[in-house]
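Same chain as my last thread, 487 residues:
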Amino acid sequence: MARYGDNAIDEVRQRADIVEIIGAHVRLRRTGRNFVGLCPFHNEKTPSFSVNAERGFYHCFGCGAGGTVFNFIMKVEGLSFPEAIRSLATRYGVTLPELKNDGPAAAEREALARANQTAAEFYAHVLWNTPDGELAREYLHSRGISVETARAFMLGFSPARPASLAKALEKRGLTDAGVKAGVIKRDGSGLYDAFRARVMFPIRDAQGRVIAFGGRVLDARMPKYLNSPESPAYSKTRTLYGLHEARQAIASQDRVIIVEGYFDVIALWQAGFRETVASCGTSLTVDQLRLLQRYTKNVYACFDGDAAGRKASLRALEIFLQAGLLGRGIFIPTGFDPDTLVRERGAAFLEELIAASELLVDYFMEQVIVRVGTASLTSKVRAGEQIVEMLSKTTDRKLFDVLAGEASRKLGLGDNTMRSIVHGRGVPRNGSVRETNAEKSRVKLDAIMEAELGLVAIALLHSVLRKEIRELCPLELFSDVELADLL
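reply #2:
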């Protein structure tokens, strides 16, 4: 089984300056041998968050959060344990050993990464350094996008010539990877670029690796936007545009704003709302929301303020509940989208809309009550049935209990009546949602992985225990192969 060597992991931990890493997120001041500040993981007015540079450890005496620099990066940036190690190794110039036995899949992923990165650099060069990019530069300026912002998002331009990128990839031996990544295509006459005469939006994963592209025309051609196909590196239902640029702001602000388009993300980021992301050419998905839960549970989604937007918010509620989140709706005035709103009305106006945002589940309950009515016990029960049917979408038992109780209060129903409704809808009497076998397995797997993570953390903090842990817990029994590699 392939794994990083103990020495390499220890070197990353020793090289990584925990005060520097945490200081990028928390304002620290020295107190004796420690550094203290306000905890980034819960609201507090008196500092209870302590960092010990000598031991390489942090601890909050308020909420109990604590661990090594690896734990902090995982929590703040939403990374897995292996990702945190690789991220810190890159930041501090530690060369990790190549993992063996990964087979063809690893080589394919590496080739795709190189092809996408080469394409992004090529598009950026065309935009900023060639006459071909002049029209695109003017277009970005007309959209209010500064050079600094455009560079932060790695924006570029694909020239109109049919095989410009194809030739660049061919010189680097990346033709097959470029085809698989969807940036070039092959037909009977040869290779040609998939994107031509379009402003290019590189789509990056949370670690900053380019995994796909979106391209927008500058004229009236259709389709207006063209997106990369799915590949071994890219799944649109599991990807959020702008997450890499937003993840630190999401953690520090403890909220995230979801919009629809590339320009919406970029405009809000430039206006100071750096905690903004967008779904990638698809409706919001459960997987995307679960990805965001690594960073925050305070998720705000933008909708049009008209009737269609309100209906869309009700459809989104089911997705939020399935992800175990409540979700709040920011309703944009008719005639605007987030991009034009912040450019024409200003950031302060959007902040007012955020402050006035509504819990999607509250809005749903109110709509049911208005439509069905509560004039009689029969209508109250009928409204309760419709509400419970929606609430049962969640797999979070505690969330269901809280929401069912709130529905009972809003409807003026007694506890016994609400329990009868819950039972009648197929939800167990204890108020928990119906669990499928798959859901039970997932919960069990989550608990196993949490235990495995704890063992690895102990081994890293106390290297003398590593051999004993390996003997007690053979690596082949681990459910997470990458995690086992680090033990």
